[in-house]
Protein 1
Amino acid sequence: MGIWRRFTEIAAGAAGFFVESDDEQQPGRRVDNAGYATALIALGAKLAKADGLVTAEEITAFREVFSAPPSAQNDVARLFNLFRQTTLGFESYAKRVARRFRCCPAILEDILDGLFHIARADGRVTDDEEVFLKQVSDIFGFSDREYRRIRASRLGREPDDPYLILGIDESIRDCDIKKAYRRMASANHPDRIIARGLPAEMQGLASRKMAMINLAYEKILTERGLARDTVH
């Protein structure tokens, strides 16, 4: 079961526990994560409110990201409607999530991906939504470069900035380009992203993200006059 679905079940009052593995808890200790689930719902709802109007498209996107089972949908909707009234306090929920997953940046990136999915659901990401997303990214501990890369994978960039997509500097040595590409491709392969917790409905988003990474790699090789079989 994906992490989003698991959390929403817990938030709705379903019986369930996670086994903690970070250094806040001893391995094997079972901990109720309802608070973390509520924090995720709050972030999604407050982001939808960031531009002042919660649209039907954003509500649909929220449901796609959280993918609550039928038995939990009413309770999740109640929490969403509660949190959608204002963006105030979103920072505290972001901090709660960041503390929970501070040793798992890949999961934090998945969560930020989900928030981008909600933000762009109505056809555009407004300046207010951008501010919200950037602040959440900062709280999650991502650098400006990492945020720009994550944003680019969701919203697209100019085709002449492939280094940002791969999270590398333009000064990188030829011999290190393939290593950087493999590292990024491994972390963002659709199968691995879904295994980390994104619902199956978001497979298309993961595939587009991987396609952008591949395109960035090919562009760097072309700019440098390199071929795939000559980069070691």
Protein 2
Amino acid sequence: MNKLLLMSAAMFMGISLLASCTNRDMGTVGGAAVGGVAGNLVTGGSGVGTAVGAVAGGVIGNQATK
């Protein structure tokens, strides 16, 4: 029960924070998400590959929405 409550609260706070984002912020977040998934797939689940992909995707998403 406590785990479900904490997950619900975290999701609610995350969604409410995204509602106040600019287009550039959303591009950065979206790019980081896609980059992280791509980095994970390319490196076979490596944590470093996922992190590098997320950073690179965030930078690309930020610059693309400039």
Protein 3
Amino acid sequence: MQYRGGFGGGMNMNALMNQARKMQEQMQKAQEELNEAEVVGKAGGEMVVITMSGKGEIKSVKLNKAAVDPDDVEMLEDLIIVAIKDAAQKAEQLKNEKMGGMAGMGGLM
């Protein structure tokens, strides 16, 4: 059997490169959208509200004055953690929606 080089099955190298370029552009666009997107996490009936980017960067923390009780700091700490987890879960969900179609790209992500 004679070796002809290249990819098996007669795969067109130009088509493969174009597909890779297109996937890279889609990945870049999705990452930009995630960076610009915002999600909101809440706890205690909006006593604590966390705004986070789609990439998981905390943008703002809002506390309702009623949540600030000097005699019960632990409750406020717990509410902050719950709001951060809520926002992080929403950011992860958004990331999965934006990047889900590209999950099979392996090392390109």
